[in-house]
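Hi, here's the filled form for the chain we discussed.

Project: internal
Contact: R.S.
Residues: 182
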Amino acid sequence: MADFGHELWFGAFLTPDAAGHHRIVRQAVLADEIGLDIIGIQDHPYLPAFLDTWTLLSTLAGRTERVRLFPDVVTLPLRPPAVLARAAASLDILSGGRVELGLGSGAFWDGIAAMGGPRRSPGEAVDALEEAIAVLRALWTPGDEGVRLDGRHYRLEGARPGPFPRIRSGCGSARTSGACWS
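And the returned structure, exactly as it came back:
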C-alpha cells in the first residue's frame, strides 16, 4: 500500500436522494456511532431528485459528533469559489473542524448549462479549477487588504479574506500551503 503521508480513513458515500432524506440522516448518525472516519455526499445540483449538498452537509454536521464530512465533489461551475470559500470555512468552524473539501471541474455539461452554468471544454475546466483553487487559497489567507485576482474564469475585486477554516493539528498553516485543508 502506498504511503501518502497520512492515516487511512474509512467512510461512507451517501446518495443525497430527497425521497430518502430520513434514511440518509440515520445512516450518517450510524456511521458516526460505529466509528467511520468520513462521509461523502455527491454534489449534482442539476438533479432534481437530490438534496442540495451544502444544506445536507450542514444538517449532518449538526446530527453527528466526530465523523468528517465532505462534498464528493463540489461542482465548481455551479459553486462560485469565492462563495464556496466562505461556505466551506463556515461549516468547518461550526462543525468543530470536521469539513474536508473535494473539488470537481465539471463533467455533466448539459445539466450544468441547464442550471445557468458555463459549458467548458476539458482544458477550460482544468484552467477554471486552477483559478478556483487560487481564489480559495487567497480568501483563506489572512490579511488586511482586499484580494484581487483577474482570472479568465474567476475574478476577485477587493474581496476581504475570511472566515478561515480551522487549522488541522500537526499541519502548520493551512493558509500558506493548503496542505491541511483538503
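Let me know if anything looks off before we file it.
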